Amino acid sequence: MAFFVPVSTLTRRHLLFPLSLVLFEFATYIAHDMIQPGMLLVTQEFHVGPEWVSASLTAYLIGGIVLQWLLGPLSDRFGRRPVMLSGVAFFMLSCLATHWVQSIEQFVFLRFLQGISLCFIGAVGYAAIQEAFSESLSVKIMALMANVALLAPLAGPLAGAAFLTVGDWRTMFWLFAAVSALALLGLWRAMPETAGDSATSLSLRSLGKGYYALLKDRQVISGSLAIGLVTIPCLAWVALSPVILIRDEGLSRMDYALLQLPVFLAMIAGNLTLGHLASRLPVERPLRLGAWPIIIGLAIAAVATAINAHSYLWLTAGLSIYGFGTGLVTAGLYRLTLFSSSAGKGSVAAMLGMISIVVFALGIEAAKAAYFSAGSGGFSLVNAACGLLWLWLVRAFLHESQRRMHEKTTL
């Protein structure tokens, strides 16, 4: 493959690639968020308990782990483009198949297969964005992409609640397949090839040696864990808010959907702020700025629910403040982690994706266990613990970054 020069000025011609990628990402997210208001209907149809509501998202995230280890190196060798196009087509077909499920086990299994699409987004798509554009432009694009992706949890519950008044949950998956088909067409037309090295070995021994080296890299590990931890409160809210608000607080599906708005609008505001700061400040600066709303917001939610387990409005307010901070830090932390190692970016992105998604799944299950045993107070306590661990890991990440930079300047 010829050497690819990163783009430093975004034109209309270059814009179709990130737009198509984020459309696919939007399809993968809305496939969960739009069905959330109907998950209690799914469990009722298959005669199972409400604990299966969060099992759907957990299976989805586990699917996002299983091929990360292979897809990154595979795209390093054969190129990002063919691997990415195959992933979009696979997701589209698995959505179509969901229409015919006959049991909750079949439904969750297909959620697992659909979750494999996360492997392609993280290990292939994001790596291609980072390679195709310069540092400040890629951070800005990732922040803007995150805003579009956030329309899924923002509009998804509202759209899902409205859709369920005129249709059933099975028909939704035809819509998800149609959106991914549009993304496939756009990527086929616009995605550049930024990788492809026939010398990259795909033997198990070589892959194992490469991933072992990444496991020993402090920055890759601390950055990956931090990305996972800072996202847990958001994902736990997405997974459990139907149970918290509809089943236990007695709210309507529409009220539940409206209470998603402040959380995800705040995350969009954080991403827009990051996009504004990306070309004006070093990438590390928004990490320090975002720490304040993250910790303060999670602390407000924890204190409020400890005092009154039914204070769901304070819980929503705290998560909204946290959401602003999360939007401010995530894209920059991803960029810094991806380029903290000299290994192939597909392999680093795969390691980052595997670690963060394992953390997602464990965090959601921890939040679920805490909620069903200790109510909203336990749920918020797990979220607050994730925020504090994130803060410690980011401090360690930045300290290691400064140490390495100092070593380079003294050589």
Task: Summarize this structure as a short list of keywords or feature phrases.
411 residues, mainly alpha, Growth Hormone, Chain: A, 16 helices, globular
Can you give a write-up of this model?
This protein has helices at residues 12-33, 39-45, 52-66, 68-78, 80-97, 104-115, 117-132, 135-163, 169-190, 204-215, 218-248, 253-258, 261-277, 284-307, 312-338, 345-410. The model has no long low-confidence stretch (mean pLDDT 88). The longest helix has 66 residues, at 345-410. The protein has 411 residues and is mostly helical. The protein contains 16 helices and no strands. The protein has one domain (14-190, 207-410): MFS general substrate transporter like domains (Growth Hormone, Chain: A, Up-down Bundle), CATH 1.20.1250.
